[in-house]
Predict the structure.
Amino acid sequence: MIELTVNGQAHSVDAVPAMPLLWALRDYLDLTGTKFGCGIGACGACTVHIDGTPTRSCQITLGDAAGRQIVTIEGVSGKVAAAVQSAWKKLDVVQCGYCQSGQVMSAIALLTGQPKPSDADIDGAMDGNVCRCATYQRIRAAIHTAAANLRS
């Protein structure tokens, strides 16, 4: 059994330590907001926060995730998360939506550490989050909107 803390709750997962965290989240804990995209950490669809850092859940094993604080899209909360989610809705960022949980997780992490990001800051933080619908301009605009709302 591997002990995980996900979204503030303790879970025991009966799986091998080498299993990617992504599969435990989806298949054992039924947290399907975290998506499988590429399996090699290149697309960002599986992004979660581990100890506050955006992390590709397909690239970290259960063994390495044990004992750490894991937050999925289902568990985001607080002022920054609310501002990001509100801006995403207001600017109609989502097209197909598949990548958006990873995009939102990366945006929350960015604004948590950088309350007034430049375009270069946004591009750097969002690098590796692929959107096949190419909503990158709306994503950047939503992050600027969320940042402005957090400052007001």
User: Anything to note?
Assistant: The two ends are 46 Å apart (CA to CA). The chain has two domains: 2-73, 79-151.
